[in-house]
Amino acid sequence: MTLEGLAQEQGEHSFEQAVRPFLLSHCLDCHTGKEAEAEFDLESLTADFSSNETANRWIKVMHALKFEEMPPPEEAQPAAIEKANVVNWIFQKMVETDRFEAYQKKLLAPEYGNWVNHEQLFSGEIDTPPFSPSRLWRLSPEIFASRGFGDAKSPFTYLTSERGIRDYAAMSLADQSTVQMKMIVADSFLADREKRGDFADFAVGQPTFEARELHGVIRREFKRVIGREPNHEEKDKYFKFLVQNIKIGGQLDGLKTTIKAMFLSPEAIYRMEFGLGEVDKFGRRMLSSDELAYSLAYALTDHGPDRNRLISEAMAKGELKTKKDVQRLVQQLVDQQLTTGHWDRKDLPRIRRFFDEFFGFHRAGSVFKDNERQRVEKIRQWNTSMLVFDASLLIEHVLKNDKDVIAELLTTNKFFVAHPGDNQYARKRYDEKIAEVTAPGYIETQVKKRREQIQRDFNFKEMPKKSEQAILATRREATQTVANFQKELQEGIYSHPSFPFTAKSRGIGDLLYIGPYNLPDSGRLDEQQWAWPLEQPVEMPTDQRAGLLTHPAWLAAHSLNEGNDPIQRGIWVYKRLLAGVLGDVPPDVDASVSTDPHRTLRERMEPLRAERCWKCHRKINPLGEPFELFDDWGRYRTHHYFDEDNKVYLRRDGQFDQKLKDGQLTTRPINSVGEIRFSGDPKVDGEVKDAVEMMHRLGHSDRVRQSFIRHLFRYFMGRNEMLSDSKTLIEAEQAYLKHGGSFKALVVSLLSSDSFIYRR
User: Fold this and answer.
1) CA 477 to mean position of chain CA atoms
2) With a threshold of 0.70, does the pTM exceed it?
3) In this predicted structure, what is the pLDDT of residue 368?
4) Beta strands 666-669 and 674-676, pairing class
């Protein structure tokens, strides 16, 4: 976005009309003269940005307003639009004095995505026609993986944090290391193919090729490296290059040099979005049909348009020329393919990846949990991959229903637990398992299968005693399985049938991992304690679970190795759901929380309520502390326990049960009280008793809905919002509401918006 465009978008808010009245009403009582608070005098501050000192002081004012640091929370708060007018005036003065360009680079970084004023974005007052800057967008690691280069390591990486939206076009520049890695990939790719004999016709001593044959080679190799058919100009260019290389280095080396050149072509590194279509009256250039096809394909999949039937058909029929064409195609895509495909390889994989990147629960396995802790705290199996799979099924279920999607994701108490997500398939698998286990001769059949396995296994060769022990173990297990299934049938309990790895089902062996749901776990040979529901989702207690933020996968992913992380959880809620802005932690501030075995985590965080810390922590702690309703395994809890020395007692094994029975433990109720601020809605703001109540309030709020849309916008556009995107965001929200909270409508609106299809 140009500086002139930014100045136009900010509007003309003069110092006397917008800034001086604001200072008089909200600032000068404390920041005046020699005794000004923090020695920051605003009364003498002029509008002269030609002075570096004055300009820097105004930037501090802007940050204080954006970070909600001023006015102090105990004072009357100005309307959001008043603060926005002051911030916009400062921006405009920075533009006028050539100070904004360096500052703007900072705003392009993902962590500054919320800095564009939220109220202005959704106010309707911005009438600038939306567009995206023309750009090169480096290929993602997932796109590279789909190109079929074997085991070659991707030369492309994300420069953005794993804790946010990752694929930012503005940051995706190819540097020297990227080019070097591309050459390593090319060498590896060519070496593997040469070993397989792909280039045998080019070996020394083989006859020379005719021009027609070389043109065929160019077409084949170009499509393999670039992912599409070459045009006439490209065919001619690479043909001439190949002929020259063969003349200099021989047939084989000439071919390999030509293919390596393809690896270094811009399209092998970048997605190109320049806007090669028609120019409108606002000077915006529409993406051409080819550009639209690739942009839509990469927005929703990891492949070019030729790999998606609907997109390739639209290209072939010439049906990608207008905004209505784009709307129609995207509607087809989401209607037919949004939740289709293999359980782990969806037809539109970037939809699932958005939810991974937005919620971050897929990182649960990266938070280390000590095995000894797991044992004494009675987590029989810490299987984060299964918890993540369960959370993914919940998202898919909500997307299939496509009603009030954002609120449902944040408030539902209906979860999937140890289930494939498809009730029809689950019933089929259960019926087959029951028929198998209850059939006469089941035990002998299992023994026979085991004997056959042993005969094929060299580990049992000439070891009759070991073989017999294995056979006996199989007989015992089969006998126990029959007994368990018969008992559960008599009690009216569905026996968990143990799902295999298939296209429809992730392998789910037993109920051993379900402890974090506060459910009684059981192994494959244990008597099943939980009445596992064959049809799911299953309703969890309404006072214990409300949406993905109370799901064990999310709670585990946003925890520490040895306990909860209220601060990071609060930051997540503040930034992702409330579009909040936080400043950097001052370098001289110790951000660690003290360790004291006699105090709960909440009590140990009390020092953060000191004045200096509380300026920032007042925004995040009250949003993170309600999740103390759960431990870091994701289990709901009501009390802390203390031993005879008044130390927090964390064991939950047999020793815990005995101490509790003997009266050696004291209890204290969990303090999960928190507070919502900055939602912009007095019905939402206020004290909450716990995370469940907080999620029900937030899940249905305008602010959260709009913040979710802002993050989805960044994901599809590969950049932060600008004020000129206001129309796009408002139209997306209106489409969502008009269609009853439809995620599909949201996707269609964003991917057919002016921000997506126009460049400037």
Assistant:
1) 42
2) yes
3) 95
4) unpaired
